[in-house]
Amino acid sequence: MILKDNQYSIQEIRLTELSREFGTPLYVYDAEKIRFQVEEMQKAFSAANMRIKYAVKALSNLSILKLMKKLGVGLDVVSIQEAHLGLNAGFRPDEILFTPNSVSFDEIQEGIKLGLSINIDNISILEQFGHHYHKEVPVCLRINPHIMAGGHSNISTGHIDSKFGISILQLRHVHRVIKTNNIRVVGLHMHTGSDILDADVFIQAAGIIFDVAREFHGLEFIDFGSGFKVAYREGDITTDIVALGKKLSKSFNNFCAEYGKDLEIWFEPGKFLVSEAGYLLVRANVIKTTPATVFVGVDSGMNHLLRPMMYGAYHDIINLSNPDGTYRVYSVVGNICETDTLGADRKLNEVREGDILAIKNAGAYGFAMSSNYNSRLKPAEVLIHDGKAKLIRRRENLEDLIKTLVETDLD
Ligand SMILES: *Cc1c(COP(=O)(O)O)cnc(C)c1O
After folding, report:
1. Residue having the nearest C-alpha atom to atom 8 of ligand 1
2. Ligand 1 contact, 45 CB (< 6 A)
3. pLDDT for residue 193
């Protein structure tokens, strides 16, 4: 998004005009930014045999998945429904890694029937898998290394309480199950969910996975999950993808040389690819001055963007309608009957009722986490691609809200 001639625009399309054309609240995504992020990763890891598996859960609109396909990116899915979306978008089943947790073995079997790459995160499932499939269906194992690449220069051990993955401490058990059932392990996976803030720390963590990998002989890839951090506010520490790519490629290639095979290195970015590409456009319904605060009440809320209330996440907010207005301090709140703050104590160009605000970093975990709470309707989504704004999901209507209800006679 750039400010030119007093107008905020993406690919020459004025955002205030988009809000008039499609209404608000409106999710807007910039395909160019997504492409740019994909290319940043590809460049950073050009020295290694790197594959990107986009984490569908961040933003699962079918058109976004089709865009990922065009960009040569595979998918990481966490539910069988996400897998179906991926297949619908034209992905081959083997381009989709299925990484569910706490699912029944039935759902794993559905994934196998579809031909997905299967990532197993639990010894109980691994045993059932081995009982049914043996060598003909290769698997990846999700390992929990109990490390967090946290802080600046230390690996903090932790995550012992995490529900994800098979504990690195259970590897002997894992090897027994594999050997007894003749299971073919082709991949190892590690996604701790923590941010990569420092390449050196991450390399230390990778070393632990390399140690595990030495004990598996038929590997084809190692999947380092995600953890790529993007900026949500000015001054945020972000993952230095260039430094990480350089250092990790080197240590990965060294490992491959020692292992005796050119493995692929996989990543599953969600946020990194789509967070900054997305904006939630909302309309200022009311300005309300209380003894303590000036509130801007908008036509959206935690039902459309949950991250501020769920994680205390910071999302930058801009007044698109008044770019050179005087700066004033506001709390931007939604219209949901809860404490529903989208941004507290924000300096915005003076907001007038009817102005359009843009909430930034809304691409990842924005629409994907939206709900119908308060029986409000979900917003529309627009993708700006090749200089054109395309509606990729229409706004919900009242019919959508009641279509799954079954009328019963309570007389
Ligand atoms: C959520 C998730 C990701 C993506 O995480 P981001 O922080 O959005 O990059 C990747 N892999 C798995 C297994 C996940 O659950």
Report:
1. 270
2. no
3. 74
